């Protein structure tokens, strides 16, 4: 992309953002600034390295399991936040995913034969106003699962500020152990400099029922260290009032980091995203023509084809068809006094979510269920018995 095109797109984006008041999350941006994927695909970052996801199941020491869950959390950030782009001078290619429509689904899996690990991802848009996406990742063979959901709120004040209201919970069957994982807030910076990039700042903690805490302090360009996407982290025992580190980590979450034994200073791991052994494994997804009408890539097929061909007129036309049909469906449901029922997830009462309250006690973590229409959990039986077509006689276009 030449500098003239970059500058033109940035001017277009800043002009557009300046006209929007309030939450940007459900606002449709200019077609040239859209990513060729939907919000429901974002969960691929949790699942695309099956060996990393399964690793805690094979670790007997609880402090090391906390370290491995922390690694999984950090590894996912790059592909989660650099949407349709990558770190470096061309980070301006970061784009906004398509706003998922109510009931949109994404089903995929990843198999790492060498490490005998396989992850499955189930994601569904369970609410459109406000936008809430629920996700479930599971490795059945190794007995590890992650359940999460997020309401995304976006505002613009020179930067795009993205707030994720929700959390993830990792469960390891072998040790009957749970890990509470936060969803960090993000800023998209670099508009004026012509190089957009995501940045996380602030401190976040992951808590395990095994008795350990992982604390991550994110910093970034213009701060103490002055390097984009920087962080420092440590793992410590929960009941240690001095929070003395057992393991330390430092580096750049979009590039690489070093893990050390805090007592001896020994380097335990040097992780690099671009190392061959750390590359994501290929995603398995059924061909688009065999997908159900509610599956993301089939539903947005004509929009994605328009993007691939550079035909922005087709992108706008086909995208508008879906959005208009969805508004008509909501109006029809309202006229009949009906409420949309998610297919694969259900909202439970916060009072019934004992594991969150136990892990979050005294930590400052808030459930905020009143902002996310409850606590979203997968319908295990429904997923196991899932068969296409999912909603016989009904498509996202209303027929």
Give your account of this protein's structure.
- It is a single chain.
- The chain is globular.
- The chain has helices spanning 3-18, 44-47, 50-54, 62-81, 296-299, 301-309, 312-335, 354-360, 380-384; strands at 34-38, 96-98, 105-112, 117-127, 132-139, 144-156, 160-172, 177-182, 186-189, 197-199, 202-208, 212-218, 230-237, 245-252, 256-261, 267-272, 283-284, 345-348, 375-378.
- β3 and β4 (117-127) form a beta hairpin.
- The strands form three sheets. The chain has a 15-stranded antiparallel beta sheet that branches. It has a two-stranded parallel ribbon with strand order 1-2. Strands 18-19 form a two-stranded antiparallel sheet.
- α6 (301-309) packs antiparallel against α7 (312-335).
- The longest helix has 24 residues, at 312-335.
- Helix content is 24%, strand content 32%.
- With 399 residues, the protein is α+β, with helices and mostly antiparallel strands.
- It contains nine helices and 19 strands.
* Main sheet summary: 15 strands, antiparallel
Global Rg: 21 Å
- Our count of helices gives 9
In terms of DSSP E residues, the strand content is 25-35%
Family: Belongs to the OSBP family.
Protein name: Oxysterol-binding protein
Pfam family, one: Oxysterol_BP
InterPro entries: OSBP_sf (IPR037239), Oxysterol-bd (IPR000648), Oxysterol-bd_CS (IPR018494)
Features:
Oxysterol-bd_CS, 9 helices, OSBP_sf, 15-stranded antiparallel β-sheet, globular, Oxysterol-bd, two-stranded parallel ribbon, single chain, Oxysterol-binding protein, alpha+beta, 399 residues
Quick summary:
It contains 9 helices and 19 strands.
